[in-house]
Write a structure and sequence with these properties.
- This protein is an all-alpha fold.
- It is built from 3 helices and no strands.
- The chain is elongated.
């Protein structure tokens, strides 16, 4: 069940990151989901390092770290995707 939740959370984080970033992202949905999963893992790691991973109630700080990490990964993934596609078109 943990993998299913990771995919669902990654999908939601990837969509939110694509919606927050300005302009058009060329990143496919499956890659945005993978970036979202990575953002969730990195955000959880940062929250645990700062001691705010488990709080009473909703873990807003942990979710904020996850979203920021997902935004950064989607941005970097989009830049890499554009560079890769541009390189393929030149060949």
């Amino acid at each position: 069940m943990g993998w299913l939740w990771a995919i669902i959370v990654g999908f939601v984080l990837g969509l939110l990151a694509k919606a927050i970033l300005p302009g058009k992202q060329h990143l496919p949905l499956w890659l945005a989901t993978i970036c979202g999963i990575g953002g969730a893992v990195i955000g959880n790691w940062i929250a645990a390092g700062l001691g705010v991973a488990e709080t009473s109630g909703i873990d807003w700080s942990r979710h904020a770290f996850q979203l920021v990490a997902a935004i950064i990964l989607v941005f970097l993934g989009d830049r890499a995707w554009i560079a890769m596609k541009g390189r393929q078109q030149r060949v």
